[in-house]
Give the backbone structure.
Amino acid sequence: MASVKAVVFDLDGTLINSAIPFKEMKRKIISYLRSNGVTSGLLSEEMLTVEILKLAVEDLEQKGFSKKQVANILAEVSNIMNEVELQSVGNAALADGVAATLRALRQKGLKLGVLTRSCHEYAERILAKFNLSEYFDAVAARDDVDQPKPNPEHAFYLLKLLGVRPEETVFVGDHWSDAECARQAGLRFVFVGGGQGIEKGCELGSKAVNNVYDIVRIVDGL
């Protein structure tokens, strides 16, 4: 097995305790999509945003909306998401042990990256807010790629920025979609905390830790 050269982190729920009101965001997205042609009742706040958008696109395409029309609708959805995310920056809190973890990984000579479904401006503001920018070599956000995680394209984009291969990389996240992205991209994955779908992630062969600082121990053992 290749030695570890990089550690990639999810942002919300992993490095920070997010203040993004995800249900409010989904309500706004669903309301906008419904008012622009998506079948009423098709979408639910209980779905992941990626699921909401997938169903919406399929519904619009079945109704004969052109690719340009669908693209324009998705662009406005992205604007809605960006606005909600950016409004939440002031209320975000740093997760315990993050700064010490990043320092320790840096001291080992590892490259570090952020892989997030939030927008790039939000990610950069969060990192600056907690003085974390200096630790990271690259950030790959939702609006940096056509297909964000769990699509492996998102991970491959970040790996290219970091200059490392999938087998040399550990991905740390708190959600089953992080684990699925890692599986499809060929990354080793570690669950941190008790995030959604941790059981499903462990079934995929992922390791699990309670605190982000435990990542240092995991990396030492790989």
About this structure: Strands lie at 6-9, 16-17, 93-94, 111-115, 138-140, 169-173, 188-192, 207-209.
